[in-house]
Amino acid sequence: MILSISEDMLKSARNNDWESVIAMESRRNTMIAEFFATPLSAEETQAVAHYINKVLVIDKQLIELGNLQREHLRENIQKVTHGRHALKVYSAV
After folding, report:
1. pTM score
2. Region 2-92: CATH code
3. C-alpha separations of 36 from 21, 48, 57 in Å
4. CB 57 within 8 A of CB 4
5. Domain segments of the chain as ranges
6. Tens of pLDDT along 32-74?
7. What CA–CA distance (Å, rounded) separates 28 from 24?
8. CA–CA separation, 40 vs 48, rounded Å?
9. Residue (of 38, 39, 12) closest to 25 by Cα position
10. Long-range contacts of 20-28 (CB under 8 A, 24+ apart)
11. What are the pLDDT digits (tens) for 13-29?
12. In angstroms, what CA-CA distances link 50 with 33, 34, 41, 44, 72?
């Protein structure tokens, strides 16, 4: 389930649905805490490690997409700021 929600988070991030990503991340964090509240057996540890690595790969992709989105937002804010400044200068003339 944790892997599944991680995959859904990645799909949402790829679709620029960051509100869904945030909501799913909150649910996923709860699921992770609940899962690791119970100690694992030696047999389970190896299988769980495999899934943890998959989740970490997805998280890395989420971070990269988040950084790209943050840069895109920064550029848009900068354009709006420049546009306001230009409008202010033009209005003063």
Report:
1. 0.78
2. 1.20.58
3. 22, 10, 19
4. no
5. 2-92
6. 999 999 999 988 998 899 999 999 999 999 999 999 999 998 9
7. 6
8. 9
9. 12
10. 21/62, 28/2
11. 999 999 999 999 999 99
12. 18, 19, 15, 10, 34
